[in-house]
Amino acid sequence: xxxxxxxxxxxxxxxxxxxxxxxxxxxxxxxxxxxxxxxxxxxxxxxxxxxxxxxxxxxxxxxxxxxxxxxxxxxxxxxxxxxxxxxxxxxxxxxxxxxxxxxxxxxxxxxxxxxxxxxxxxxxxxxxxxxxxxxxxxxxxxxxxxxxxxxxxxxxxxxxxxxxxxxxxxxxxxxxxxxxxxxxxxxxxxxxxxxxxxxxxxxxxxxxxxxxxxxxxxxxxxxxxxxxxxxxxxxxxxxxxxxxxxxxxxxxxxxxxxxxxxxxxxxxxxxxxxxxxxxxxxxxxxxxxxxxxxxxxxxxxxxxxxxxxxxxxxxxxxxxxxxxxxxxxxxxxxxxxxxxxxxxxxxxxxxxxxxxxxxxxxxxxxxxxxxxxxxxxxxxxxxxxxxxxxxxxxxxxxxx
Length: 400
Description:
Blueprint: E1 2-10, H1 15-29, E2 33-41, H2 48-51, E3 56-58, H3 72-84, E4 93-97, H4 101-111, E5 118-120, H5 134-137, H6 150-169, E6 173-176, H7 179-189, E7 194-195, E8 218-224, H8 233-245, E9 249-255, H9 262-274, E10 281-285, H10 289-298, E11 301-304, H11 312-319, E12 324-326, H12 332-335, E13 343-344, H13 350-362, H14 364-381, H15 384-399
Parallel strand pairs: 1-2, 1-4, 2-3, 5-6, 6-7, 8-9, 8-11, 9-10, 11-12, 12-13
């Protein structure tokens, strides 16, 4: 089958990009003819080993439009129409992957050729979070977020969802990875969806034995993610003084591109200085998979306090045998269990986070349970092959 996979951007080492490209890689191994389409492409900064020899077509730079400001999403729709014209006419199925890409599929179906479109939804179309979580996510003190009244932000979200609802309705099938997005999609767009759990490169992230930490030695903490408004790195930094008071000697490494939100990075540095832990926080910046895997091997605990419904890095850390602490946000939390595969701490609560880290760092039995049982669970239940097989079954069904 000739499949066009459409991704908003292929310009960074992000979870959406890894998921889409891993799917493309597996589908190609199944015998499908795969082509990638995107608004922007940077091969060296976006998993070149996964792209391999799969053809990639990006929208020419001279056809790009400004996407910032209130009407930025309108320009993205105009760009989507332009990108649809570059999709090969032999395509038999469209697979828009992530937000805005489903606009591209709509225009191809309307103006080029009416073929099935299976949209993979990683987050709600016109917003990162639904209205109910807006106050929880946005923090103008730390992030470059316009200080608009909450009623204004909610109004904008409702208007954008009303606009996007049209494009959502034109998709033949929609897949999601958790019940949270399934319920929100039905509520905000009136569409049913099918749950297909995401995958993991279980061959790359092999289990490694991790020695249990102790109060007598340095405690190496690790977190990762592109610097965006919902990462909550400040919660980990704020937990460090509490850990020190408990007699631990923590050091935190943060892997992720901080050029996306320079104000956030600056505020985190100021916070660590104010708390007296600036020498205990290391910003690694952009990274390669090999560097992250090395960090998995050398760290004691992976921390994921993000207000984010799914994170591939969580499954990768667990698969590598690195005990992990998360917050109970839908998505990842739906598939993992407290003190069985992960430790769960309260959202936006450095005290709760410190308590979970302290318990994990000082209980060798619990530490080894999460390390061994967590890895076994993830490696058994998640793989890119399983993910591709789930998607392929849907492709075959709509393609007949």
